[in-house]
Amino acid sequence: MLLELAIGDAYGAGFEYATEMSAHNDLSQYLQHPRHRLGPKRELGKFLEGYVSGDWSKPWQGKVKSKGWMSVSAAITAVIPNHSMSQLLQDCIAFTGDVDTVAAIALAAGSCSEEISQDIPDHLITGLENGSYGRDYLIQLDKQLMSLVTDK
Length: 152
What we know:
Layout: H1 2-14, H2 44-49, H3 68-79, H4 85-94, H5 99-111, H6 122-126, H7 135-147
């Protein structure tokens, strides 16, 4: 489910400054793609290019500024070569700049990829604050979101 959320973020970023595209700014195509049909992560940029204008297959280089499309491009660049969540997180941070957004997108995508080992260190999970909308809330919300995904 989180991969779809990352793609939704990319979809929105593709229209961030393209007012001429606003008539096409809907999720009708996006919603037709359940997680199990998205294909290998190496084709993520190519997949997005089929639905969102932009050169999503071009690897990102350098500092990430605050434009949404920059964060999405950097996240795609980080996801494709990585095989573990811990290394993916390190690579997101290495970009510098708006790396929290890059990491959020990339880790959401990585969490749904069978090609990426789910090895986020326990201390990063247990160290999250746990107030009303903290760690336990997010774990429960994630379970609810994932229950909406049905394999056909």
